[in-house]
Amino acid sequence: MSAPVQDSTVLQICTFHLGDQAFGVNVTHVQELVRAQEMTPVPLAAEAVRGLINLRGQIVTAIDMRCRLGMPPRADGQPPMNVVINNGNGAVTLLVDEIGDVVDVVDVDAEAPPETMAVGRDLIERVYKLDGQLLFLLNTDRAVQVSSRPSPERN
Amino acid sequence: MDVGDDIVREFLVESHENLDQLDREFVALEENPHQPERLAAVFRTIHTIKGTSGFLGLHKLESLTHVAENLLSKLRDGEIVLTPDITSALLAVVDAVRDMLGHIEQTGAEGSNAYESLADRLTALRDGALAEAAAPDDAPPGQDPKEAAAPPAPPAPVEDKAPPPPKAPAAEAGHVPASVDASPTPAPPPKTTAKPGPVSSAPVADSYVRVDVGLLDRLMNLVGELVLARNQVLRIGSTVEDQAFQSTSQRLNHITSELQESVMKTRMQPVRNVWDKLPRVVRDLSVQVGKQVRVEMVGRETEIDRAILEAIKDPLTHIVRNAVDHGLESPDDRAKAGKGRTGNLRLRAFHEGGQVNIEIADDGRGLNVDAIRQKAIDRGVMSAERAARASDRELIQLVFQPAFSTAQQVTQISGRGVGMDVVKTNIEKIGGTVDLTSTRGKGTTVKIKIPLTLAIVPALIVTSGDQRFAIPQVSLLELVRLKDENARSAIEDVHGAPVFRLRGNLLPLVFLDQALGLPPPDREEDHALNIVVLQADDWQFGLVVDEVRDTEEIVVKPLGSVLGDLEVFAGATIMGDGKVALILDVLGIAARAGAHEHNEAAGDARGELVDMSAGSSQGERQNLLLFSLGANRRMAVPLHLVARLEEFAPRHVEQVGDRQVVQYRDDILPLYDLGKVLGGPAASTEGPVHALVYTQDGHSIALTVSEIIDVVDTVVNLKPPLSKHGVLGAAVIDGQVTEMLDLHGVVAECNPDFATGRAA
Q1: Is residue A93 in a domain?
Q2: CATH class assigned to B6-153
């Protein structure tokens, strides 16, 4: 889904933070940004699925990016922000710590994610070397693809 | 060619409608060929398609319709008379045109199929039939002055080519035209069709607007949103004192309800939209299998949501094909049975209790219950003994099982054993039910009940583990609430499976919090026990929830693809307070709880259970022997299976190797401890040994039990077994949960020779 990045093509990335790391998604995939919403948990769903939110009548599945990327859970009392992604198959929201700016990047600054990344490497499409910080560009399709929690009946 | 082009699209939509109408017209014409207006209407329709396709540069379409038009003009002018062959050829034209339109829709071109042979056939029919028609007898009486102008008949040779005139339709067996009556009264033209209909050409078009279906769907979604917002406003209104706000919110309430109803109506379509295709299906099929069928339709205007109509199209067609192929007999057989040679197929639709009922009835031979019984035994679905006792109704239900077809012959049309189970599955998928009744020699009726709409459904709101869930009311049977003392003693445990006694029947219980892996509530505090009795397929169970709230109209929204594989939820909805609640999928819950699967698995393994679940609603009167195994296990066995009851003094029991035997009537009787056989503690106690003696082919074995309790004559409603081994099921007998012993199974296990009838 994410557009192939050409050399020196400018790509706009909507950035957000998890802990002190910066991540981003292609801005064209972002439907909107909203603050924390009340969530209805979904029993038996995958661990990363935190629940369902009501986005003006649209029911949207919330996926915790910390869990998805193997990071420790968010501190209690820190409400997550929603990055609502719409890539054609209905909306999904990514729960993140903080929302950053939209930045313009060019492909010359990018590299493939390091081979040594333990968790979440398959979700990262590119790593951009910005001034003083690395920016991980997420593959939105894969980021929202969560397998169901293995249930005893199924395995 | 650009399909996006408005003119082309308009042409496609219009032509499809016209073709559907042609199907009907031809079938009606075959019934009575002397209907000049009808023929004229058909001619006009084909002419219009020809004209427009020429204008749009669709030459293949143009040339085929041109040839058809030539033939039709002769028909219209009464120069030739409609025969089954001509009808078949013209229907083939309709199909070919449809085919080409399909190609145009998809690719923009007419497709590569050649229709020369069809065109040749039409030409031959025109010329050939022309000759036939010259015989004065065949001309429509007083129909057309041009008859006189018809060219003189060429001599005999043409006759091989031409079909026999329709004066003697029944002359050739196997090639009898189906007489199909599309409706008791001539069908009025569809409202949306601008083309003049066969009977009247009133300008109905002026009062109708073509609306894109996508727009209707979107309207429905918006109304759904409005309903939710209304619910929210009403909730806020209940906490506000403001008089003006109160009255405004009440008005909003009424307007929303009316709007919802009206928009739902726009999505409604009369059932005839699907039915009108059926006379053609029946006609083709009956010609193919050499039967005569009259189709009668009642309630063609009954309206159903278009999504549901779409979903029942295939099941309906399947049932109708089945009825023609298997249900109705050949004309000769019918005559032998003292019925009219023409079989009747009657479709009836009507609204009842917020649901739509559709019945498909034939007056054919009916289901052969004995064949089903034999098949059930052959397939191992039932034991011979069980099948002998099974009621006709029970057996008939078996046709809904996968791979259960009683058709003697596999025909091209049906009889492959994939059919009624798929019909059932598809109907149930949209929240409907299907039932079949049949009387041997009199006919078969299939009854379908379906909801009016899927988008907005009434649901019961319950809570469990502090979460709200919605249960669609179609699955809901009743609510049971027990307090204090009753609640504590209500749940009985039968070998690990919780059950509740509902009016003497055992109702398996599923705890919603456990099924969903939610934290269990503090049941100690709350003494009340809430059981929601649900129907999943033909199986009932009780869902234990923390609280039962209210019933509400909910708008069903699908879960995203991320959660699509969660079988326990049917979707989600937004509640009056703006929060999301999940909608439970009753079948999914049942499957998840394992109870349902268990039921089926056990049924497959032992066969006896299939009828157990089917027969659970009626129950049967049986003479049962009650006995116990130890203090806690009460069991029963049909008395007639037991040869004798015996009591032995312990000193008579001898040990031979690892077996126990007694000398008994000059024979050696092996003893088996039933408690041990069933995998529990030994049943034998101090004092005399109680034994059930089982005899087969002159050989006996004895099963020892703790105590013989009683013999009772009672109606048994067997429920699926709660423990697995050697037990057919459980029931409440004399106020106590009693398990039914699988005597044959146990005996076969003790002594395999009994199973094979080689008792040694």
Answers
A1: yes
A2: mainly alpha
- Examine residue A73 and state whether it is found in any structural domain, yes or no: yes
- Whole-number pLDDT of residue B359: 92
Q: Which residues of B touch A145 (CB under 8 A)?
A: 562
pLDDT at B20 over 90: no
**Helix, strand or coil, per DSSP, at residue B418:** coil
Chain B positions touching A92 (Cβ under 8 A) are 560, 562
What rounded mean pLDDT belongs to chain B?
A: 75
pLDDT tens track for B426-447: 887 777 788 888 888 888 899 8
Q: Is B467–A144 a contact, with Cβ atoms under 8 angstroms apart? A: no
Residue B464 β-bridge partners:
B467
The C-alpha of B238 sits at a distance from chain A's nearest C-alpha, in angstroms, of 22
Confidence of residue B135 (pLDDT cuts 50, 70, 90): very low
Q: Is there a contact between A38 and B582 if contact means CB atoms under 8 Å apart?
A: no
Selecting from B224, B579, B582 the residue whose C-beta is nearest the C-beta of A54 gives B579
- Model confidence at A105: pLDDT above 50: yes
- Is A41 close to B467, i.e. CB distance below 8 A? yes
Highest mean pLDDT among A121-125, B25-29, B212-216, B507-511: B507-511
The predicted pLDDT at position B246 comes to 86
Structural domain of residue A32, as residue ranges? 10-141
pLDDT for position B619: 52
Query: Confidence class of residue B462 from pLDDT cuts 50, 70 and 90?
Result: very high
Which residues in chain A are contacts of B592 at CB distance < 8 A?
Answer: 153
Close Cβ partners of B491 (under 8 Å, ≥ 6 residues apart): B498, B499, B500, B509, B529
Give B651's DSSP letter.
G
Does any CB of chain A come closer than 8 Å to the CB of residue B583?
Answer: no
pLDDT digits (tens, 9 = 90+) for B292-316: 889 999 988 888 888 888 888 888 8
**ipTM confidence score:** 0.84
Substitution target from A52, A144, A154 for chain B, most B beta carbons within 10 A: A52
pLDDT over 90, % of chain B: 4
- Range B214-270 classified under CATH 1.10.287: yes
Contact state of B581 with A54 under an 8 Å Cβ cutoff:
no
Distance CA B680, CA B105 (A): 70
3-state helix, strand, coil split of chain A in percent (to 5) is: 10, 45, 45
Task: Give the gap in angstroms from C-alpha B222 to the nearest C-alpha of chain A.
Answer: 9
Equal CATH topology for B456-595 and B601-756 = yes
The verdict on a CB contact (< 8 Å) between A43 and B467 is yes
Angle between helices B278-289 and B6-31 (to 10 degrees): 50
Are B562 and A92 an interchain contact pair (Cβ–Cβ within 8 Å)?
A: yes
Please give the backbone phi and psi of residue A46, each rounded to the nearest 5 degrees, phi first.
Answer: -60, 155
The answer to whether the CB atoms of A40 and B580 lie below 8 A apart is yes
Nearest CB to B580; choose among A59, A144, A148 = A59
Residue A16 is assigned to a structural domain of this protein: yes
Least CB–CB distance from A44: residue in B465, B467, B517: B517
Domain at B601-756: CATH architecture: Beta Barrel (2.40)
- 8 Å CB contact of B580 and A61: no
**CATH ID of B456-595, from 2.40.50.180, 2.102.10.10, 3.90.180.10, 3.40.50.2300:** 2.40.50.180
Residue B198 pLDDT: 44
Contact B562 A54 (CB under 8 A): no
Chains A and B form CB pairs within 8 A to the count of 71
Whole-angstrom Cα distance, residue B482 to residue B163?
A: 77
Q: How many residues does chain A have?
A: 155
- Amino acid of residue B362: D
Residue B579 to residue A38, Cβ atoms within 8 A: yes
- Alpha-carbon distance of B119 to B91, in angstroms, equals 13
Read off the tokens for B575: 């509640």
| Mean pLDDT across chain A | 82
Give the nearest chain B residue to A144 (CA atoms). B562
Q: Model confidence over B694-744: pLDDT tens digits?
A: 887 778 888 888 888 877 777 777 777 656 677 888 887 777 788 888 888
Is residue A25 included in any domain, yes or no?
yes
Query: Contact at 8 Å (CB) between B345 and B295?
Result: yes
CATH code, domain carrying A43? 2.40.50.180
Domain range summary for chain B, segments of one domain joined by +: 6-153, 214-270, 272-451, 456-595, 601-756
Domain count, chain A: 1
**Distance in angstroms (rounded) separating the CA atoms of residues B626 and B632:** 13
